[in-house]
Amino acid sequence: MVFVLLAMTGCSYIMPKPVVVERTKIKIIKIPEELTETVTATPPPTPKMFMALDTPSRYRLLFSIIGELQKDIGQCNNKLEGIREFVKAAETVVNSEDKKD
Known about the structure:
Order of helices and strands: HHH
Number of strands: 0
């Protein structure tokens, strides 16, 4: 009797559906420190010092400051370009690693 029951349950066994497991990889790629350092802008002259200058000296000072600020903006743009290149290179590395999997 027990044998008959075991034989019947063995024949009616239903395979469970396969379970699909999805894995998500998270990769943290830090931007290099030198690309995120603060660029200090050239400070303007104090009003007292500026007013103490004669007119030609004021213009020379203003043009000098404009030139320095243009350099500061250039440094910021170079850092931003470096960040863009870093991100593009990091995406390439991540995409090539994904293709290996």
